[in-house]
Design brief:
Helices cover about 45% and strands about 10% of the residues. It is built from 17 helices and ten strands. The strands form two sheets. An eight-stranded mixed beta sheet has the order 2-1-3-4-5-8-9-10, with helices on both faces. Strands 6-7 form a two-stranded antiparallel ribbon. The protein is globular and about 70 Å long. The two termini are about 40 Å apart. The model is unreliable at about 1-25 (pLDDT under 50).
Length: about 500
C-alpha cells in the first residue's frame, strides 16, 4: 500500500492541475447594453477525441473511473510487484490503465490536437446586445491560435449584435486566452474585462510538476487534512493529533520514505503519462511561472522526452513566451488605460500538499500572489507580524492579516474573496462580473460597490470579511500537548452530551 500511495502522489499531482455587514451582499442588476463573453478555464468546454462521436468526450474521470483504476490497475499491480519486485512493470501496468482513461486528452507531439479531435464549433446566427455568451475552445491547444478563434468569435458577435464592443469575463485559463487576444489584436473591441482567478501570471503548482518537484510535504499533509475537516465538530481534536504526530516526527519519517519511492518511480510515470499528456498542451506551458520555464523545458524535453522530436511544440512555447508572456504587464496596463478592468483573487486554507507549494496561500490551485498579480501573503497558518505591518496602509491589509494588497500590480482594482475555491464560479461571481463590467464608472476598491476583502460564507453568499487574525501559534511541544489535551477533553464532553 505504501507504493500505491507514492504512485498516486505523482499521478494526482499532475491530474489535479486540470474548481456591508454580516448579511449577504446584494447587487442591483445593471443595464447590459453590450454582449458578455465568458471565457472559461480548463475542461470547461466540451472537447472530443472524435468530434463525430459524442461518446469520446474528454471529461475529467468520474469517481467510478478513478475507483476502477485503483481496483483494476493499482491493487493487482501491487500484488504482482510484491512478488517480482519489478518497478518498470509496476509503472507500465498502472500508466497503461491511466492512459486508457485519459485517451481523449492526448495531443500530437507538435502540441496540436490529433486529427478529428477537438470542439464542435458554435454557429452563431443571432446575438442580442445584452446577450450572455460562452466562448468554447480546445483547452489543450496553443493560446495564440485560440486567440485567433476568439478574434473571429468577437467579430461575429459584434456584427450580429450591432455593437462595436464586447465585455469579457475570464476565469483561470480564460485570462490567458484573453491576454493572448489583446496582445495580438489590441483593445479596440473590448470595453471591459474581469479576470477571475487568472492563470496568466503563472501557477506554482504547474511549475512544480513540470520541473519534477512532486514530493509530498509533511506539514502540508497535516494542513491539507485539517482543511478537509472543515467545520467538523472533531476538527480541533484531529488538528491537535496531527500537530502531535508532526512533533513526534512521524510525518517526517513517512515523507522521507515517500521521497525515496517517488524518486524511483517518477521518471517512468513522467515518461509514460505526465509528459506525453500534460507536456504536449501549449496551454499548460503558458502557466509555468517565469522563473521555472527554462528548468521545466530542460526537465521535460531534455530529460524525460530526450531523443524525441518536439521542436514544433517548443516553437509554440517560445512564440507565446516571446510575445504574450514578455509583454504581459504592458498589455494589461494598456487595456487598463482604455477600458474597465477588475481582478478577483480567491484564497482558502485548502492546498495540495507538495513541497514548495503546500504553504502558499491559494485558491487550492493557483497561489493568491499570482492571481492578484503580486499581493504579498503570509504562509498558511501564519499572520503578518506587527513589525511587518508598521507603517502599512491597513485598508490594504486583509482583516485576518494574511494578505497585503499594496504590492499588487493593480492594488485599487483587485478584490479578494476568502474561503472561495478555484472552481466555485457560480451565480454569485457571475453577478460580480456584471457589477464590474457595466458600472457607469470604472469601479475601484474605494468606490464602495464591493469591499476589497470579502468572505464566502457557509451558504456560499458573499459577505464583508471582518475575520480577526488568530495570531501566530506557539508550536512548541508543550503548547501542542496542551492543545491536544484540551481538544480531547472537549471532544469527550461533546460525545457524552451527544450520546448519553
Amino acid at each position: 500500500m505504501k507504493h500505491l500511495k507514492k504512485i498516486t502522489a505523482v499521478l494526482l499531482s499532475a491530474l489535479l492541475l486540470l474548481s456591508f455587514s454580516s448579511a449577504a451582499l446584494a447587487f442591483e442588476e445593471p443595464d447590459r447594453d453590450v454582449p458578455v463573453i465568458y471565457i472559461p478555464g480548463f475542461t470547461s468546454s466540451n472537447v472530443y477525441g472524435d468530434i463525430n462521436n459524442p461518446d469520446t468526450l474528454a471529461g475529467f474521470p468520474s469517481t467510478e473511473d478513478i475507483l476502477n483504476i485503483v481496483t483494476e490497475a493499482f491493487i493487482p499491480s501491487l500484488i504482482a510487484f510484491s512478488v517480482d519486485k519489478d518497478t518498470d512493470k509496476l509503472v507500465c501496468r498502472v500508466t497503461d490503465r491511466v492512459n486508457e482513461v485519459f485517451a481523449y486528452w492526448f495531443n500530437e507531439p507538435t502540441g496540436s490536437a490529433k486529427e478529428g479531435s477537438g470542439i464542435i464549433p458554435e454557429v452563431l446566427t443571432e446575438v442580442s446586445a445584452d446577450a450572455r455568451l460562452t466562448f468554447s475552445y480546445d483547452w489543450r491547444g496553443d493560446p495564440v491560435e485560440i486567440a485567433d478563434s476568439l478574434h473571429a468569435y468577437i467579430e461575429t458577435v459584434c456584427e450580429l449584435s450591432g455593437c462595436d464592443k464586447v465585455t469579457l469575463g475570464c476565469h483561470s485559463l480564460g485570462s490567458t486566452i484573453a491576454l493572448a487576444y489583446l496582445t495580438k489584436y489590441g483593445n479596440g473591441r473590448v470595453s471591459a474585462m474581469v479576470f477571475d482567478s487568472p492563470a496568466c501570471n503563472g501557477v506554482a503548482l504547474v511549475g512544480n510538476v513540470f520541473t519534477g518537484k512532486v514530493n509530498l510535504d509533511a506539514d502540508g499533509i497535516a494542513l491539507y487534512l485539517k482543511a478537509l475537516m472543515g467545520e467538523s465538530e472533531y476538527n480541533e481534536l484531529v488538528s491537535s493529533v496531527l500537530d502531535m504526530l508532526s512533533s513526534a516526527h512521524v510525518l517526517e519519517l513517512f515523507n522521507s520514505f515517500a521521497d525515496e519511492i517517488i524518486a524511483a518511480l517518477a521518471p517512468a510515470v513522467y515518461r509514460e503519462t505526465v509528459a506525453p499528456l500534460l507536456g504536449c498542451w501549449p496551454t499548460m506551458w503558458s502557466m509555468v511561472p517565469d522563473e521555472d520555464m527554462e528548468a521545466a523545458k530542460e526537465y521535460i524535453f531534455g530529460e524525460i522526452l530526450a531523443g524525441k522530436d518536439y521542436s514544433v511544440l517548443e516553437g509554440k512555447i517560445d512564440a507565446y513566451n516571446d510575445t504574450v508572456r514578455a509583454n504581459r504587464v504592458e498589455t494589461l496596463k494598456a487595456f487598463d488605460e482604455e477600458g474597465k478592468f477588475a481582478i478577483l483573487s480567491r484564497y482558502t486554507t485548502k492546498t495540495i500538499p507538495l513541497k514548495d507549494y503546500a504553504h502558499l496561500l491559494s485558491d487550492q490551485i493557483i497561489e493568491t500572489e499570482s492571481t492578484s498579480f503580486g499581493a504579498t501573503t503570509a504562509p498558511i497558518g501564519e499572520y503578518f507580524s506587527d513589525e511587518y505591518l508598521e507603517g502599512k496602509d491597513m485598508a490594504l491589509i486583509s482583516p485576518d492579516k494574511t494578505v497585503d494588497a499594496s504590492t499588487c500590480l493593480f492594488p485599487e482594482k483587485t478584490w479578494f474573496i476568502k474561503g472561495s475555491g478555484h472552481f466555485e464560479t457560480d451565480g454569485v461571481t457571475k453577478e460580480l462580473y456584471d457589477i464590474f463590467l457595466f458600472a457607469d464608472e470604472e469601479l475601484t476598491c474605494d468606490s464602495g460597490a464591493l469591499s476589497r476583502f470579502t468572505l464566502r460564507d457557509d451558504s456560499f453568499a458573499l459577505v464583508e470579511d471582518t475575520t480577526a487574525p488568530e495570531g501566530n501559534k506557539d508550536n512548541g511541544i508543550i503548547a501542542r500537548m496542551y492543545r491536544f489535551i484540551t481538544a480531547l477533553i472537549r471532544t469527550i464532553a461533546l460525545l457524552i452530551e451527544k450520546y448519553l
